[in-house]
Amino acid sequence: MIVAMQDTATEEQIQHVIEHLVRMGFSVHRTTGERQTVLAAVGARIDFDIRNLEVLNGVQQVHRISEPYKLAGRGFRPDGTVIEFSNGLKIGADEVVVMAGPCSVESREQLFTVAELISKAGARVLRGGAFKPRSSPYSFQGMGEQGLKLLREAGDRFNMLVISEVMEISQIPLMLPYVDILQVGARNMLLKRGIAATLEELLLSAEYIMAGGNYDVILCERGIRTFETYTRNTLDISAIPIIKKLSHLPMTSDPSHGTGRRDKVAPMARASVAAGADALLIEVHHDPDKALSDGAQSLFPEQFRTLMDELRMIAPAVHRKIG
Amino acid sequence: MIVAMQDTATEEQIQHVIEHLVRMGFSVHRTTGERQTVLAAVGARIDFDIRNLEVLNGVQQVHRISEPYKLAGRGFRPDGTVIEFSNGLKIGADEVVVMAGPCSVESREQLFTVAELISKAGARVLRGGAFKPRSSPYSFQGMGEQGLKLLREAGDRFNMLVISEVMEISQIPLMLPYVDILQVGARNMLLKRGIAATLEELLLSAEYIMAGGNYDVILCERGIRTFETYTRNTLDISAIPIIKKLSHLPMTSDPSHGTGRRDKVAPMARASVAAGADALLIEVHHDPDKALSDGAQSLFPEQFRTLMDELRMIAPAVHRKIG
Amino acid sequence: MIVAMQDTATEEQIQHVIEHLVRMGFSVHRTTGERQTVLAAVGARIDFDIRNLEVLNGVQQVHRISEPYKLAGRGFRPDGTVIEFSNGLKIGADEVVVMAGPCSVESREQLFTVAELISKAGARVLRGGAFKPRSSPYSFQGMGEQGLKLLREAGDRFNMLVISEVMEISQIPLMLPYVDILQVGARNMLLKRGIAATLEELLLSAEYIMAGGNYDVILCERGIRTFETYTRNTLDISAIPIIKKLSHLPMTSDPSHGTGRRDKVAPMARASVAAGADALLIEVHHDPDKALSDGAQSLFPEQFRTLMDELRMIAPAVHRKIG
Amino acid sequence: MIVAMQDTATEEQIQHVIEHLVRMGFSVHRTTGERQTVLAAVGARIDFDIRNLEVLNGVQQVHRISEPYKLAGRGFRPDGTVIEFSNGLKIGADEVVVMAGPCSVESREQLFTVAELISKAGARVLRGGAFKPRSSPYSFQGMGEQGLKLLREAGDRFNMLVISEVMEISQIPLMLPYVDILQVGARNMLLKRGIAATLEELLLSAEYIMAGGNYDVILCERGIRTFETYTRNTLDISAIPIIKKLSHLPMTSDPSHGTGRRDKVAPMARASVAAGADALLIEVHHDPDKALSDGAQSLFPEQFRTLMDELRMIAPAVHRKIG
């Protein structure tokens, strides 16, 4: 950590800062120049709050030198994490994995219809929500455990893995028998980037899970909130190359939630692959006009097939392929 | 709801939209002008997603006419909600209520020291966190139930109500015996405005709780995320008069979390009262340099006393008083 | 325009709004339902400020139905604008046009070195700044007219058109003899999207120029300001498909200014083409470490050549080609 | 400047960075620790671009230690700048100066009516726009020089100074005979904070003007662009105490443009004074419903008088007074 003192800082103020740093467990190196004093603090702690120093008298600026995360950082696994599933599918390797399916599981007929068509088009993972807490208390809230059972059955039938979203900790035991990938949603800001989360905060969330012993973490960009209101959120495509540089974890993109509008999903899916995404999450419905949730951002079957063909053309430009 | 069709919309497209609206349960009034057709849809439903109409062919714009919330709206209680507690304290009435205390409960000695001094300065509600999920997994995580017991004891001793934050649903039964006001935090975006939540979303969250039967809801502005990085968040003071106009619910402000820096808490607390806040949430610590969490945004005791005196001078300008 | 009155609006308030609309030159159609009254105002004016209605007593919401722009709208030229230059180059047609060059013109040697290499790699337009107003008053401010002369000479020598940025109106006569495309910059928010400009505002700026008689307008996404600070701005790739739908004007992308970092330029250039951009603006320098401005976002020659090869692989997926 | 190298940086990379720093004119102090090397660069230059270092191989982070501005910094004049006008009025001293008037000068009758009423209520400076470039090319564009003459005449008649906005450099000679304070607007981001400008950028703009020899600079907060759309912009009240700490320059607030809605102007004006503003800019019109521009954000005369009374009650809480 670097603490730059103000030009006008007194010796007493400088000593106070040094004592504070020492009490926190740091070794302090002091450089006093013509105009100002700079303190370099070295030590093993990564859990301090730099604002505690910023508000001390005489302090001009404080900069953290070490990153606040370590397990999630690129340095922990320079070659990148590849997550391999029991059926041999890998995320983080050559193939850009497409995860698709409806927003919500609505019925057996709906789910199997969609699962069959996306499987034929090349999707490798089936997505679908069983619990749907909605902005309005007056909307459809999901099928619950029955939805989970249908997902597992459809995934097995059409040879796809299954991903579904956890809403709170108490749901995890219920979900484990049915689901291959637990999606931890924007609502509680863990693995999907929250709509107001910086990339550093996204990596800190991953660090939380990894510190608990689970290293198979996948990150996902799903749109951030900006002043532009034409789309629900602004899908931050630049997050993809940035995360790939900072971290070894696989990075995916969700153009369905990231734009909220069907006609923008395909261009942003293409852009995500062109920018280096490891996987995509895409909502598809066999009859979006009648979907119980998020129909407006679900692709029609034919749109999904066309998109997959386009992605197959783009992937080689980034030395990847599509399943 | 108003659906404006494009100039170039065909009669077939217009009919398709009308059928869609009728299927959703609306009555449709059609106006065809020189250049375009406008459809007005009238009905009782408030839980539809207007994006389902926006993506239909031939549609130019869709506007919701009725607000998506009703219980939280000003019209539901034009005179404003006043919440009265068992000890006679009212929030939403003449008095601007000050809720203060440390970020975390750290020990009996710390809590009682702070509670006594804020009580003497005029605070009416004691705040303090028992569960502290932190950005970094390597930081202090709170005292848990033991912290709740201390809060209750200190509140009773110094004649203050107690407020503490709920982190997940399963904690509520544990908290009810100890706490007078459950604070539902920014993390799960219920009553404190999330850092990326619009004011409409804040009111929809209140609507959720009210639809469940609990009408004693208090709203709180605590800073939104913007491009400015000097403060942790940007405390949106304009949210105070806006919410007071749109809704009957009491509106409070949290300048401690909203700025994240001790030296900005007092000016923003004064500004909040000048803009019409019903209550304030302020972090105070008897020795902030040694606080286990958020010391940088905690006021020193003397700063808190001075601030209370300033607030007493400002409140009459908005026809209010301070306890 | 649609004016929705509050449930509690009095007949007097409704009449006041109607009179206001009539005075503004609108015809008013009134619909009074069970709960509220809605007024539809029809007329030819497009230059009114809807806030004048929003603040009238009894008004709940006001929505503009017609777009505030007409010349810039897609409806004005449904097939899209194609701009053809004297040398036969077209922007808005099949080819994705790459405009490249250094941030600033620094010397004859620098400009000719860069111009030759980008021309060989497939760039069609030479870019370079002659006037460089900088954030800091202590930085290099550009070569002025001498820079313009060098640009013209290098463009002619290597068979490229020339684009350069206008800083204020009085510079235009000076620039016209030398430059094929006048770039109107983010600083004065005309054709490049300002970093805080909505897409509607970008289209209104185009409308301004078109209302003055110049229909050869090209739009450019160059990054918006968000809370994320890892990159200087967030390049809003979704602006590309949105503008292509709303407007007939060619839409380009500037990944150099949009990210501010050399290592993010290539992924975002690829993503721009994949999302449907008509052209790209890319900064290239033969020795970026010694560049007098923006060296950090300038590509090395070899990076530019590799990028062009990648773009040639991606363009066919969107039915385009690269020169 | 501090350059932290990556854990994995090679000695060659470190040497390359050192050479780069030396070529830029810095002296370099190197500290090599157990895990990483940190370089401290010391020197007089303040006009470098730290991104040139960030993109070098092996570099993890770069931090500027000295502020990029010096004339605008608090240290340049620790007691704060007080600007005194020929009639004895001071900005930056005890009195919070209220500058008020219509958005545009529309006619002699309109201007004199408004000038008289605000003067009687306590305003010290008359504001009014003569040039009004509008978002839409189809709106009223201002009275030009004739408007300037009327402002001067009205200011002299009612004993107020005159402030008006410069749109481009070529207008300055025209304005100097008539105007006491030149307002340099958000459009060209000089002294009013641009809607996407950080506070550091605002101070750098001031630095530009001060480096040119004019030290009588006043800063103004007028709203920043955020995701919230209820108000046109979000007035960042926290900018007031922040600027007062960082800089010696007077800091004002414009709640009219900052909210865009008449009913929010008074609460935000009160909040601005409570937060420490040196002056306020407020739009007032004797008949806002008929204003040619920005009527929706103009106060009625009676609202302005009431507001002035409220401000007189609040000012003493921050040891200030109102004229």
Give a summary of the structure in a few sentences.
Helices cover 31% and strands 18% of the residues of chain A. Chain A contains ten helices and 14 strands. Chain A starts with a strand and ends with a strand.
Salient structural properties:
homotetramer; 323 residues; alpha/beta; eight-stranded parallel sheet; 10 helices; 18% strand; elongated
Textual characterization of the structure:
The structure is a homotetramer of 323-residue chains. The first copy, chain A, has 10 helices and 14 strands. In chain A, strands 7, 8, 9, 10, 11, 12, 13 and 14 form an 8-stranded parallel beta sheet that branches. Chain A has 323 residues and is α/β, with parallel strands linked by helices. Chain A has helices at residues 11-23, 51-54, 108-121, 145-157, 172-175, 199-211, 239-246, 255-259, 262-274, 301-314; strands at 2-5, 27-32, 37-42, 59-63, 83-84, 90-91, 95-101, 125-127, 161-166, 181-184, 219-221, 251-253, 279-283, 321-322.
